[in-house]
């Protein structure tokens, strides 16, 4: 009786007018990084959103203006820290383009192995986190052991795991050891089984599909207008991949497919990333076969012969006069760096990672700008989630793979 | 690659005459400039033309050249024709006193945040931008940090106690 009376007190239509403001972030577990979403909610439905970014801005572009080239590599580590080697390689390739350094085939293949491993480690985190946000923790805990295998390979090659600072201008700081290849073989042997099992957990799971299908969708046209690249663009059905369109590091010799989606929703993004992991595995296998088929001097080279830019090995610095001279010159910034401006991009795990490098001939860049795919596509977030449910917005955030380090530079 | 640099150059000169200049090709990327009043017209032409189809804005940023008096700030657009797979670079320059440049937000949704970032770091005022405010730096900041008049801290300074940062206390 009382209920009916209360109902009459409220003015007509008042429920529809009320909205709640909800702060999702900057330290909310669902954001998986430091950024804020201010959501205007009508019940559980999102009316409007606004994002705040920049919480971990570290002025990379300004810092880079005082650092010689080899000191910028550790800065790039900290962009997308789920796949640091990709950023490192992107930076080395940019420098090599500016300095006109030609790398030997073996270096290209070794780089491809490292880059594709990084792509797998990035995608497997993203996809398993999508699972976590949907309430399926198992896949995440299970698949993490394979990231460990990848990190062990990094460790064997460069000594570190997360922020790798891997490689040098012209190649690698040291040759891959036999252990590194043994670990790679182990990964290639074990990962397909693990990935298959992971897919078995989620891909055709009815609940999971219901949560992902039709949410956070964007059309190909809008995605292009918003500057989407990488798996998020391909999920909308545009087959743009830097590895195919502007091949670098001998990608043109490899045989792989570029998976595309149709609707650009969370499920398509999940599927595209899943398929890309299979393609990456095949690329790694091809690169490994190519390395094994190299003969003679080619089979042992791990850096280009460019003493003016390639930091010599430490033991040579102490024992060889030339190495000592070049080491000194590179560290003191006395090697010639050409004037000019160059834009170079690679297919990073989140899309086109670009470096716009303006050089005035000095030892440091005059200006260095990073094209960070995350930063560019995150602005589409309101369009993706408005009108949808709050819990779907959380899924959309994780399936876009937003990495705060890359977002904020 | 069916679209050649000569075609682009020809089309631009036919349409804009001497309003487009500075043709160059550093590291195989076609680059040109235009006066800042014409930036939208050029971008729109590149977008709409049936052959050119530069409909993807890859990157937008600025560079500060303090010694170029009257043209201190340069806004750089990297455009991509995804059909023919051609990239070009387009620049407009503005003086630092009145750094007004028209916004490209209407044409490219992606320009929104990139322009906010450029404003944040260089103070380029994008006329017509729907929400031109700082994005990565704090709102209270009263300078534009990537301009060249703001040098990074002098690494040899000794008037600061850096003990907590592992550099030993220099002030006793």
Whole-angstrom Rg of chain A? 24 Å
Strand order of the largest sheet of chain B: 1-2-5-4-3
Total beta-strand segments of chain A: 6
Quick one: CATH class of the largest domain in chain A? Mainly Alpha
CATH first level of the domain at 5-102 in chain B: Alpha Beta
Beta strand % of chain A: 5-15%
**CATH homologous superfamily of the largest domain in chain A?**
Cytochrome-c3 Hydrogenase, chain B
Backbone shape of chain A: globular
CATH second-level architecture of the domain at 5-102 in chain B = 2-Layer Sandwich
- Head-to-tail CA distance between termini of chain A: 60 Å
How many helices of chain A? The count is 19
CATH superfamily of the domain at 5-102 in chain B: NADH:ubiquinone oxidoreductase Nqo5 subunit
Q: Major beta sheet of chain B, specifics?
A: 5 strands, mixed
Rg calc of chain B: 20 Å
Largest sheet of chain A: 3 strands, antiparallel
**What is the β-strand count of chain B?**
7
What does this structure look like?
The complex is a heterodimer of chains A (409) and B (172). Chain A is mostly helical. Chain A has two domains: 2-52, no CATH class; 60-408, Cytochrome-c3 Hydrogenase, chain B, CATH 1.10.645. Chain A has 19 helices and six strands. The longest helix of chain A has 29 residues, at 105-133. The model of chain A is unreliable at 1-7 (pLDDT under 50). Chain B is of the alpha/beta class. Chain B has a domain at 5-102: Beta Polymerase, domain 2, CATH 3.30.460. Chain B is 20% helix and 25% strand. Chain B contains three helices and seven strands. Chain B has helices at 5-16, 39-48, 111-122, and strands spanning 21-24, 30-35, 56-64, 73-81, 86-94, 100-102, 125-127. Chain B has a five-stranded mixed β-sheet with strand order 1-2-5-4-3. In chain B, helix 3 (111-122) links the parallel strand 6 and strand 7 (125-127). The mean pLDDT of chain B is 89.
Summary?
The complex is a heterodimer of chains A (409) and B (172). Chain A has 409 residues and is mainly α.
